[in-house]
Amino acid sequence: MSLKNINIYFAASIxxxxxxxxxxxxxxxxxxxxxxxxxEHIANNTLLAQEAHLSDEQIHDRDLQWLRExxxxxxxxxxxxxxxxxxxxxxxxxxxxVLCLFNNSQGRKLSAMxxxxxxxxHKNYVSLNEAFAAIEHFFAAYFLKQSQNSIVNNKNN
Length: 157
Fold this sequence. Notes:
single chain, alpha/beta, Rossmann fold, 5-stranded parallel beta sheet, 6 helices, 5 strands
């Protein structure tokens, strides 16, 4: 699997609050180095207005389809969001690797339901450079695992 063939689902708060929206664009730009971000629209400042013509059911079904098509999920989980929690639970059910990024510079606490899920990779960050390093490390581990799985599969065939 090459970089260009990786589908990335970026999850972040939309209706739960847009406090970190400026960071979302920078994170998405970084993620584009590793594959195709299916949810680039999350960084758009006019997202709520753009999606006003869509029903909640249409948004749910579209996003769930993108999630099913994803190889990995990267979630910015600093801003509390029920939707992101739902997406993370779905990714867990679908056995999709997840990186949770949490900006701990403002004294917030990450939900125990997210932090306590040991199948997720959790990384705290203060600066975006720390978040970028966490992304790089996550994808290095992901690609290493994919390579190892490919070797095992080739030996078994």
